[in-house]
UniProtKB/TrEMBL annotation:
PROSITE patterns for this protein: CYTOCHROME_P450
Family: Belongs to the cytochrome P450 family.
Species this protein is from: Streptomyces glaucosporus
Protein's UniProt name: Cytochrome P450
Keywords, sorted A to Z: Heme, Iron, Metal-binding, Monooxygenase, Oxidoreductase
């Protein structure tokens, strides 16, 4: 790919310190040329005001098949390490009328009224996981990411799309590899092949035995006038719901629990009622966005950003890990976790036409999950110093490989 601007930074694929990397990029400008795996060049957008502008700009698209010349003309290898992020054909990557059509179909499952009907399911899944944790001997160390933060949102989204627990467990490995930016080309190709195969199998099962789930609803929508889905759109859209609905919420729980356990005075404010779980949710999303550096968007036309021109067709990454900590928005304490902060403005749910449709469900599961966890285990503590927690091997997501905690004797669950 020809360089029209010097590369300022090669992204660290291991994700060793995403916040330091985000701060370094932000200090170099609102739009900085970066190198992705495989030598692919892109632009990192690094401050709040500019990201907000880009997310709502009609001259910015997420459709590689329509607006990325290197993809369209075959210069992006089919085994490129990040191929799954651009090869999808769904509401996430659609543009214009196709995006509106797909979003309208899926949006029926995420209305406020429909979201509230999911509360009993969220509570049942949460209580089941907490009951399992109660069997652990007090003082014993357990990986709370593996046994709570990961399964709760993953099981919820699987139930919403009608996926069996066996299929969910098998697909989880594929999703984990998709966000891993240290994968080899061979692994990347296997990821694309495996998740598509899993979605095709789910669609076939639901076509034969429809149920009360999002997949069955989308299959039925294929026959409605003016809203016909292609088979590829159907499979890829279901996968987008599964991936986006689980992976980000997993990392949210991981980050929120870590922040509260490393700031016990903040946790006490919540447990005493002087701060709310909504405060925790928004402050966590601000200072520890579960998405770090999200690929990819593309310039439909030349775009001017604070004196920098992003040429037509160039790929763009949104640096969410830099946005919430932007000192131009949140001052000198921007990188400090503080649930009492008045302005917790963030863009972790996005902005503009791609704003997260599942934000309501995410807030529901976050509130139920966190409040129930700390009501049952109010004296929960980290089993290792926070600086020993190992980050995920990725610059796309923000979380830990494991979250070892020491459980205390649980408080009995309320009855009735």
């Amino acid at each position: 790919m020809p360089q029209r601007c010097p590369v300022a930074h090669t992204l660290d694929t291991t994700g060793r310190d995403i916040h330091a990397e985000a701060a370094a990029l932000r200090s170099r400008g609102v739009a900085v040329r970066v190198e992705l795996p495989g030598g692919v060049l892109a632009w990192s957008i690094n401050d709040y005001a500019t990201v907000r502008k880009v997310l709502s700009d009609p001259k910015v698209t997420k459709s590689a098949r329509n607006h990325w010349p290197d993809f369209i003309e075959g210069r992006i290898r089919p085994d490129w390490e990040m191929i799954s992020w651009v090869a999808m054909d769904n509401m996430v990557t659609a543009y214009g009328k196709d995006h509106v059509r797909l979003r309208r179909l899926v949006g029926k499952a995420f209305t406020p009224r429909r979201t509230e009907t999911y509360r009993p399911l969220v509570e049942r899944l949460t209580n089941g996981l907490l009951a399992s944790l109660e069997t652990v001997e007090p003082g014993e160390v357990v990986d709370l990411r593996k046994h709570f933060a990961y399964p709760l949102p993953a099981m919820l989204v699987a139930e919403l799309i009608g996926m069996s627990e066996e299929a969910r467990v098998a697909t989880a490995e594929v999703i984990d590899m998709m966000v891993d930016t240290t994968v080899t080309p061979e692994q990347a190709q296997a990821v694309l092949r495996n998740w598509r195969g899993a979605m095709e199998q789910l669609v076939a099962e639901k076509r034969a035995n429809p149920g009360e789930d999002i997949t069955s609803d989308l299959i039925a929508a294929r026959d409605e006038d003016g809203s016909r889905l292609s088979e590829a759109e159907l499979c890829d859209t279901i996968f987008a719901i599964l991936g986006a609905g689980s992976e980000t919420t997993i990392n949210f729980f991981d980050n929120a629990i870590t922040a509260l356990l490393t700031h016990p005075e903040q946790l006490e404010l919540v447990l005493s009622g002087r701060a709310s779980w909504d405060d925790v949710i928004d402050e966590t999303l601000r200072v520890e966005s579960p998405l770090a550096h999200l690929p990819l968007r593309y310039a439909v036309e030349d775009i001017e950003l604070d004196g920098v021109t992003i040429p037509k067709g160039d790929p763009i990454l949104v640096n969410y890990s830099a946005v919430g900590r932007d000192p131009k928005l949140h001052g000198e304490t921007a990188d400090r976790f503080d649930v009492t902060r008045q302005d917790k403005e963030h863009l972790s749910f996005g902005h503009g036409p791609h704003y997260c449709m599942g934000a309501g469900i995410a807030r529901l599961v976050a509130t139920v999950g966190l409040s129930s966890l700390f009501e049952r285990f109010p004296d929960l503590s980290l089993a290792v110093p926070a600086d020993e927690l190992q980050p995920l091997p990725t610059f796309i997501m923000n979380g830990h490989r494991a979250l070892p905690v020491r459980l205390t004797a649980p408080v009995p669950a309320a009855v009735g």
